[in-house]
Amino acid sequence: MFQREAGRSGGVIVSREGHRVTTLELFFDLAYVFAFTQLSRLMAQQHDATGVVQALVVLALLWWSWTAYGWLANLAHADRGIVRVAMIVGMTASFVCGLVVLEAYQDREGGLYAPMVFVGAYLVARLVHAGVFIALTGPGLRRRTIITMALSVVPTGALLVAGALLGSPWQLWLTLAAVAIEPLVAYRSSVGVDWPVRSTAHFTERHGLVVILALGESILSTGVGVLAEPVSTPILAGAVLAMLVCVAMWWAYFARLTGLAEDALAALPAARRARAAADGYTYLHLALVAGVVVAALGLEAAMAHIAEPEAFGTSGAAALGGGVACYLAGTAGFARRILGAWPVLRLVAAGALIAGIPLLALLAPILALTAVAGLLGVLLVAEALAVRRPAYGRA
């Protein structure tokens, strides 16, 4: 798979089973944490469905970039040789993307043309990754790698540049098309190809860390909603309820799924492992991160009005209930793909949250938070009591 498989070559260290995440990868992720916080601000700034769609489209672009570097770091150590250079360049470019997220669709007067700055920074990250990935790939996979990169990055870049130049309303539609091309091309071009997962432990830990970072962003959003207010009993109660929501989402993934999923993935033959890793982590984990980012908007909205008796409102209720529901549905799909069984209780809870959005909208913010935290608590207890056996599929 790699040139000079054994040991070091030009500073590159090939990954082996059991290798873990490096500190450079944790550093790399901080740029994406910043971008996640800006996405919440973009949704709050727009305060409508269009703003949510715009933010989720940008999130998807950033996600394809992040997963590309995740695969690269799984093949060779992120903190050595040209891979280290690529990680640093990609991190810097992604930080620039986060810096201009609020202007990605609507340029402010003065300064550089922000939509094109965003596109340029994004393409720098992708092209640097593509170049290093191709350089590290051995003859057996190099041709297919070049084809995959060309069919995904080139048309994506063209659509993004055209969208930035044309502006609204074409930009959103062209960016949506670009977002769709990435996973479709990667999925189709990888059929029948033995893409290696060098270290299952690294791959699963890497994705777990990005979920943790997204959850951390939701906690930050909770605090942002009340920073300007004096501490009061409703604020303290709301903070506790918001933390319970975040803890429940953490519990649903880390306490119930990650260990079983890592064991199940490691037990698969190499070819099936690569496909399962792509399906369960590269694709389905986007639903988890998107759910957390949208839920963070709902938590911030609830905390901003936590002491008010008026109704929460449709936008806040849709963000809170819809975000948590998306997260639960994402974990359910992940469990089905990796562990082989549907966690039905999660799907029921996700459906209840979606159906209950009109009711959440009528409740006061603190009561809406109580309802969501209570439902998550009931779900976790019900899962624990359901049957005295491993929660999903095989151990």
| Spatial strand sequence of the major β-sheet | 1-2
Structural class: mainly alpha
Q: Mean pLDDT across all residues, rounded?
A: 88
**Straight-line distance between termini:** 31 Å
Describe the global form.
globular
Helix content: over 70%
Number of strands: 2
Low-confidence segments: 1-8, 390-395
Give the number of domains: 2
Report the major sheet: 2 strands, antiparallel
Output the number of helix runs.
15
Descriptive overview:
The chain is mostly helical and 395 residues long. The chain has two domains: 197 residues, no CATH class; 197 residues. Helices cover 76% and strands 1% of the residues. The protein has a two-stranded antiparallel sheet. Strand 1 and strand 2 form a beta hairpin. Helix 5 runs antiparallel to helix 6 and helix 10 runs antiparallel to helix 12. The longest helix has 28 residues. It starts with 7 loop residues before the first strand and ends in a 9-residue tail after the last helix. 48% of the residues are buried.
